[in-house]
Amino acid sequence: MIRVMRTVVAIPKDGRFHSEALSDASLSEKHLVIQEEKEHPAHGPVLGKIGIEPAPRPGGGNGNPALVKSAVAPSFVRLPYLGAYIIRAKTNQQVREVEEAFGEEYAFAEDVDVPLIHASGGGPRGPRSHPDRAWPDDSGVHLAHQQGIRGNGVKVAVLDTGCDNDHVQFDHQDVAFRYVSPASPVSLRAVRGFDPGGHGTHVCGIVAGKNTGVAPDASLLVASVIESERNETSIRRILTALDWVLSSVFADDHNGTASEPVILNFSFGFSANSLSNASVAALLDTLRASMRILLHDFDVLPIVAVGNEGQGIARYPAIYPECLSVGAVNFQNEVADFSGSGNFQVDGQTRMVPEVSGYGHEVYSALERNQQNRSVYAKKSGTSMATPYVSGIAALYASQEDGSLRGLALRDRLLKTALPLPTQPTGRVGKGLARFVP
Q1: 137: which of 2, 55, 125, 281 lies 20 to 30 Å off by Cα?
Q2: Which residues does 387 contact at the CB level (< 8 Å), separation at least 6?
């Protein structure tokens, strides 16, 4: 009989490091011993131990977590920067025992595929010789570029369908790329960046395309975590990608502070209606814990799309206060009908989203390459497009002041400098249009 393995994730609820150093004790493995009695037909009871050991992976490799397996015990993969674990177990009883051993300080969620936001296409698509994007004057992008402020020295991490690294819009930089497999517990493939769906390439082009980008000199770190055919991802793939991002940025710094500001672009989100009540609560707990760790332990600002279901509906994690939530306006500074918004109860308080808006209607950006290897462009609409615009504005700000503007301070700057849009309906655009102000 073939037994299907269950995969669950565990992550600290209240932050990983609490100002501890990343080395030594703070990255030491948590040792667990769980007694499990098994009835073996020939040998009677068999005593199994579940343990997490800091053993190196075969072949080594850039601090990737160790995988420990036994015949009867669950396997564990450690994501050291998040302080999280990916656990594969054979039985529900094993899962319960692991949860008990970790204790209440950890959030647990089963790894299930969940559907995401859909961006809409529109307008012409095809090759173009000089795809310069003239962002409206209200954005302040042209002014920033005139002053030599182009996002230099800032890293923007993009979790999406991927990125076509060989599109001409990215020939000015070496895009760091990892493919996170949907099949293996943890599988990070360091391959040349690709994107079957084009969504991630479009997002990356808005952030840092050579001609189309808001912050063309920002460095991109891209993790492919979304299967474009089904438009789905899972919490395991997201956490694996986030840990890779942190390891890429903080590998040479053991004080929890990167030498360069880091911004996370999250152009997708989860609907609370897409899963059962028990599953969605667990999923959202782990997702929120990861956003909390990014913001409070690493000063990484998560900038997140609010969703495309219109007024009164929004998606997670944009609803959480650990994220900067982004809605969409058109190039006339009018709220897009599809842009999500609403008031939501979080920790006993009312949170209004979005907090800020970006251009998200028929935004022109990179898409793919055709069979003749020519770079192709397209217009797309959605808060998926508004979010990388805001991430680009954030990168322009963060590239100033010797890189000290990051995390919560960067969020405050974006909100304080947003262009008010008083003619728009209350609660639909947040503080207004994100823009660069010298």
Answers
A1: 125
A2: 203, 265, 266, 267, 303, 304, 305, 326, 358, 360
Instruction: Express each pLDDT in 104-123 by its tens digit.
Output: 889 999 887 776 665 555 55
Residues paired with residue 188 on neighbouring β-strands, in sequence order: 180
Q: What is the pLDDT of residues 385-431, one digit of tens each?
A: 999 999 999 999 999 978 899 999 999 999 999 999 999 999 999 99
CA separation for the pair 233, 318 (Å, rounded): 17
CB neighbours of 274 closer than 8 A, spacing ≥ 6?
114, 115, 280
For residues 68 and 55, the answer to whether their CB atoms sit within 8 Å is yes
- 271 in active site: no
Q: How confident is the model at residue 78 (pLDDT cuts 50, 70, 90)?
A: confident
Mean pLDDT over 117-139 rounds to: 64
Assigned superfamily of 115-417? Peptidase S8/S53 domain (3.40.50.200)
User: Annotated catalytic, 184?
Assistant: no
Q: Phi/psi at 284 (nearest 5 deg)?
A: -70, -30
In whole angstroms, give the CA distance from residue 148 to residue 307: 33
Q: Compute the C-alpha angle 182/186/191, nearest 5°.
A: 75
The residue from 111, 160, 195, 297 that is catalytic is: 160
Q: Which of 199, 202, 296, 361 is catalytic?
A: 199
- The rounded distance, in Å, linking the Cα atoms of 186 and 189 is 10
